[in-house]
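Appendix C: a fully annotated inverse folding record. The material below is reproduced so that readers can follow the format used throughout the book. The structure is listed first as tokens, followed by the designed sequence.
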């Protein structure tokens, strides 16, 4: 196990999302304009809307989210390097694999959530963390869908770092 591990967004998964978005947009567009497929109007607009959202999100992630998304070191976990989101391993209680409609998110449980949120410098980040805390019971969540590594590998790696460095 390395002392420092940087996990970036997978370009191949992101390109796959862009292709999926383009395909859904095309299906919705052809149905709503030309009536070539035999869907209901509502379903064709759903395809069009979802396709556009996925397409824009894929391009935005490809263009804007450069560099690592997660950095694991012996000191702690940096979950959003651009806003300096950092939590020490000694503050981490554990993690949970949260599943909603077959979409998995890894939630990082903290020992003292309120103190962690108050340590944040940026007021926008504090407000966002409080909003996420009300929804998911933790301010830190990792979406492994578009990361370079799989969800199971990420969970194993988090467990190894937590066992090795969390008891210090």
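Designed amino acids, in order:
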């Amino acid at each position: 196990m390395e002392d420092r591990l940087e996990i970036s967004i997978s370009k191949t998964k992101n390109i796959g999302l862009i292709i999926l978005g383009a395909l859904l947009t095309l299906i919705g567009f052809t149905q709503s304009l030309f009536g070539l497929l035999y869907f209901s109007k509502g379903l064709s607009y759903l395809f069009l809307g979802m396709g556009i959202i996925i397409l824009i999100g894929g391009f935005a992630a490809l263009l804007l989210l450069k560099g690592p998304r997660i950095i694991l070191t012996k000191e702690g976990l940096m979950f959003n390097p651009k806003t300096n989101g950092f939590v020490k391993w000694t503050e981490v209680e554990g993690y949970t694999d949260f599943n909603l409609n077959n979409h998995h998110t890894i939630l990082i449980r903290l020992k003292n959530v309120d103190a962690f949120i108050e340590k944040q410098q940026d007021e926008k980040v504090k407000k966002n963390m409080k909003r996420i805390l009300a929804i998911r019971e933790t301010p830190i969540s990792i979406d492994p869908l578009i990361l370079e590594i799989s969800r199971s590998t990420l969970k194993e790696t988090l467990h190894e770092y937590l066992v090795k460095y969390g008891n210090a």
